[in-house]
Automatic annotation (TrEMBL):
Transmembrane found in the keyword field: yes
InterPro entries: DedA_domain, VTT_dom
Protein name: DedA family protein
Domain of life: Bacteria
Organism of origin: Paracoccus aurantius
Domain VTT: 30-159
Primary site of residence: membrane
Keywords: Cell membrane, Membrane, Transmembrane, Transmembrane helix
Pfam families registered for this protein in UniProt: VTT_dom
UniProt lineage: Bacteria, Pseudomonadati, Pseudomonadota, Alphaproteobacteria, Rhodobacterales
Length: 202
C-alpha cells in the first residue's frame, strides 16, 4: 500500500493527493494518516510544493466530506431512524443511538465539526449529523475547511520532517496501514455480531 500511494502521488502530483483524500473521505480504505505524510515525504524530496500539497489535501478532504453532508440532509432523521429500526444490525446503529448523536450534535455543532475533522473515523462521519441537523452550509464549510487544513497541514509537515528516514518509515507505514484497515473491519464485524436492538423507530 505504501508503494501504491507513493506511485499515485508521484504519477498524478497534486491531483493524486486530491483524489486520494477525496477517496479517503468517501470510503476510507487508506487513512489520511498515510496519504499526507507520504505527500510530505515527496515535498521534502523536492518533488512537490509544501503549500500546494497541503492545499490539495485540504481541498480533497473538504470535497469528500460534502457527500456525507448531503446524504445526511437528503435522508433526514425520521427516514434514518426507520431504516435503523429495520436494518440496525447492518448499520450497528439503533434509533436510540441516532437520538443520542443528534442531541450531542445540537449541543456542540460547530465545535464538533471543527474538532471532528481531526479525529480518525469521526472525521468522515461527523458530516452526517451536520446534514441531518440542517447546519447552514456556510457554517459547515468554514469549520470543515479550518479543521481539515490544520489536520492535513500537521500530517504533511510530519512527513516533511521525516523525509530523510523515508526508507525506514516505509518499513513501518505499510504494515501499519494494513493493520488500520483490518482493525476497522474487525470492529465492524464485532458490532454486527454483538448488536442488539434497543428501541423501535418512532
Amino acid at each position: 500500500m505504501f508503494d501504491w500511494v507513493v506511485s499515485t502521488i508521484d504519477s498524478w502530483g497534486y491531483a493524486g493527493v486530491f483524489l486520494l483524500m477525496v477517496a479517503e473521505n468517501v470510503f476510507p480504505p487508506i487513512p489520511s494518516e498515510i496519504i499526507m505524510p507520504l505527500a510530505g515525504f515527496l515535498a521534502g524530496r523536492g518533488d512537490l510544493s509544501l503549500g500546494l500539497t497541503i492545499a490539495a489535501g485540504t481541498l480533497g478532504s473538504v470535497v469528500g466530506t460534502l457527500m456525507w453532508y448531503y446524504i445526511g440532509m437528503a435522508i433526514g432523521e425520521a427516514r434514518l431512524k426507520r431504516f435503523a429500526a429495520r436494518h440496525g444490525r447492518l448499520l450497528t446503529l439503533t434509533p436510540a443511538d441516532i437520538d443520542m448523536a443528534r442531541d450531542w450534535f445540537d449541543r456542540h455543532g460547530a465545535a464538533a465539526v471543527f474538532a471532528g475533522r481531526m479525529l480518525p473515523t469521526i472525521r468522515t462521519l461527523i458530516s452526517v449529523p451536520a446534514g441531518l441537523s440542517r447546519m447552514p452550509f456556510w457554517k459547515f464549510m468554514i469549520y470543515t475547511i479550518m479543521g481539515s487544513a490544520i489536520w492535513t497541514g500537521m500530517l504533511t509537515l510530519g512527513g516533511l520532517v521525516l523525509h530523510e528516514n523515508y526508507a525506514l518509515v516505509a518499513d513501518y507505514v505499510d504494515p501499519l496501514s494494513k493493520l488500520v484497515v483490518l482493525t476497522v473491519v474487525g470492529i465492524y464485524v464485532y458490532r454486527v455480531v454483538t448488536w442488539k436492538p434497543t428501541e423501535k423507530a418512532n
